[in-house]
Amino acid sequence: MGAAFVRLCSRQGHRILVHPATRHEVVKGSNSPRTGQRIAELAKFEMVEASPISDALRASAGDSPVGTNDYIDLLFLASLASNAAHYLVSDDVGLRRRARRAGLHERVLRLADAAEILSDLEPDPPQLPPRVEVVKAYALDTSQQLFASIRADYDEFDDWFGRVQSDSDNRKCFVIKDHTDRYLAIAIVKDVEEGKDAPKSPDPISKISTFKVDPAHAGYRYGELLLKAVMRHQVRIGTGSTFVEVLPSVQHLPGFLKTFGFYEYSEKTKRGESIFLKEYLPSNADLEPLDFHVLYGPPAVSPRADIFVVPIRPQWHSQLFPDIEMSNEPGLFPEAELTRPWGNALRKAYLCNASTNLIEPGAALLFYQSGGRQRIEAVGVVEDMFRTKDAEQIICATAGRTVYSTAAIKELAEHRSGILAILFRHDRTLEPGWSRPELESQRVFSRPPQSISIVKGAGAQWVHSQLQTERR
């Protein structure tokens, strides 16, 4: 994976910078004969100058004694915070945890994620995007290598899985496979959990009994795709809340779950596992619109959210929302033409040259397909937005999210208004979609907009009522 990352950086013209503390980390406490080789390998890359550690970073990430490994992590974060580089690539769980506390977690990538993001920028997709399959519990192949570490953590795994198979009607199993049918990720969901150990939360309660991604694919991409399938299923069956139990040794999972609205429950299991809970039934409409969506969705649009119609060309819509295209006309999209992996994710990016400055986090985006379709099928919720003429800034900020190639982004950046980058989460797919006649009759717009436009008055009221009704 490291060689692929270096090769992609070289081919695409990205600079790989090494922090001077990296050499100290390699040398410290190591008597390996490979130490000299690793130091020689570091010398091949450009060395960045160390940045001072600010008081603000010490306060948010936590201070550490000079000379310790934790102090070195702080030095890395200091350079990232001062923008010495766009991203920090590291598989260190502790460093990533501190980056989250400092608000830098979006710019700290696992090696697997960094390589996949660069692969997305290649002229041709290197592989088909991952897909989630639904498999009956009794049809799961438990001899797969993915189950080995689960067995190591749970001595009673085989007995437990026997009970799962006998309860197949109350279980849903989601699997991501590679082209050889090897399991890359799996989630096992108990649709209704009525046990006495279930946390006190809105009924009906569902339990995510297993959530596992192969270590070689342990970045957010596969986990996000898997969780998306789980949450969509739970909302479809009317789940009130769901929970997952996490062993202390699984250090990366809590941060991932919190990104999508799970919060840590006050109690632990008898085995010392932390319980992370997510509620689907909104109980606090006073939350900020984005917080409302993250906590209760997807799907969940705050009743306080502004509504915008976003015109989008069919070719971009099919790339940004491939699951909609496949469900509409599966025969027209053979596997060889499937979109790249970001199309299947929850977090996406839309780029345009629109002049609006009204969009704020939590706003709802209604993607109106121009051309022959003339309807809205996809709804998003804004995470963030910014405008710039710097193509490199856009490429870095939207890595792994956007449908646009590097060349297309550079062309957009030449517009006098610069690029408006909208980072958003896919809230839901409307089934059926809203047609142009319906949108006009409900005063969402009087005619199809040519640019992003806000929906007001009766039109906005209708949209909010429909989103609330169609949530289930």
Q: How would you explain this protein's 3D organization?
A:
The chain is α+β, with helices and mostly antiparallel strands and 472 residues long. The protein folds into three domains: 2-109, Rossmann fold, CATH 3.40.50.1010; 132-279, Aminopeptidase (3-Layer(aba) Sandwich); 307-469, Archaeosine Trna-guanine Transglycosylase, Chain: A, domain 4. It is 35% helix and 22% strand. The radius of gyration is 23 Å and the shape is globular.
Write the layout of secondary structure elements.
Layout lengths: L1 H11 L4 E2 L1 H8 L7 H8 L3 E2 L7 H7 L7 H13 L6 E2 L3 H9 L6 E2 L1 H10 L11 E4 L10 H8 L3 H10 L4 E7 L5 E8 L14 E9 L6 H17 L4 E6 L6 H7 L3 E6 L5 E6 L9 H8 L10 E6 L1 H7 L1 H7 L18 E6 L11 E6 L5 E14 L2 H7 L8 H8 L5 E17 H6 L11 E3 L1 H13 L3
Parallel strand pairs: 1-2, 3-4, 8-9, 12-14
Antiparallel strand pairs: 5-6, 6-7, 7-8, 9-11, 10-11, 12-17, 13-16, 14-15, 15-16
Helix pairs in contact: 1-7, 2-3, 5-6, 13-14, 15-16
Provide a quick synopsis of the model.
This protein has helices at 2-12, 20-27, 35-42, 55-61, 69-81, 93-101, 111-120, 146-153, 157-166, 220-236, 253-259, 289-296, 314-320, 322-328, 391-397, 406-413, 436-441, 457-469, and strands at residues 17-18, 46-47, 88-89, 108-109, 132-135, 171-177, 183-190, 205-213, 241-246, 263-268, 274-279, 307-312, 347-352, 364-369, 375-388, 419-435, 453-455. With 472 residues, the protein is an alpha+beta fold. This is N-acetyltransferase domain-containing protein.
